[in-house]
Write a structure and sequence with these properties.
The protein is α/β, with parallel strands linked by helices. It has one domain (18-172): Glutaredoxin (3-Layer(aba) Sandwich), CATH 3.40.30. The protein is built from four helices and nine strands.
Length: 181
């Protein structure tokens, strides 16, 4: 049985997050020191054709985010083999790809979990259980600035709009919202 979803509140510390990276090494949120935000994009995995297009868009914009003081990573629950296959098949050149996200950690981040239903339209079999998408901006002090969590692969935040929002947020020193419990 999976633990219940834990809602995260803006301006509060986010859970610890450490994952291995495609290509070697590991990514640890606790050691990140971006100018403005760490952007964590949780994706469903190799089986998801929408993830392919979505991460391809982010891959093309990594430098734009970096210029704004935002480091980006995409993370899934896929194992090393599937994560590497996605990295190659999706032709990701700039985006850091983390893998092996445990489902209990996903729940701590407020992510939804789905049951696999066999092969997808991409011809890849879904894992028995996998995470649904989420996008989080985390301040350098480890507190949540904002989050978008999905129950399905559709209607994700546009990276072009996220870039515009970051420009506004930084220029206006706009505070995190949604913190009232």
């Amino acid at each position: 049985m999976l633990p219940p979803i834990t809602p995260l509140l803006p301006r509060q510390p986010v859970p610890a997050l450490k994952v291995p990276l495609v290509g070697g090494g590991e990514w640890d949120l606790a050691t990140q020191r971006p100018g403005n935000f760490s952007m964590i994009v949780f994706y469903r995995g190799l089986h998801c054709p929408i993830c392919s297009r979505y991460l391809g868009d982010l891959d093309r914009r990594v430098e734009e985010f970096a210029k704004r003081g935002v480091s980006a990573i995409a993370i899934s629950g896929d194992d090393a083999e599937r994560a590497k296959a996605a990295h190659v098949a999706w032709k990701l050149q700039h985006l850091s790809i983390g893998y092996g996200l445990p489902l209990d950690v996903a729940r701590k981040w407020g992510l939804y979990i789905s049951s696999g239903r066999g092969p997808t339209s991409a011809g890849v079999t879904e894992p028995e259980l996998f995470i649904e998408p989420g996008l989080f901006l985390v301040r350098p002090d480890g507190t949540l600035y904002c989050a978008s969590v999905q129950t399905m692969p559709f209607a994700r935040p546009s990276f072009a709009e996220v870039l515009q929002a970051i420009d506004f947020v930084v220029a206006k020193n706009y505070p995190a919202r949604g913190e009232a419990a």
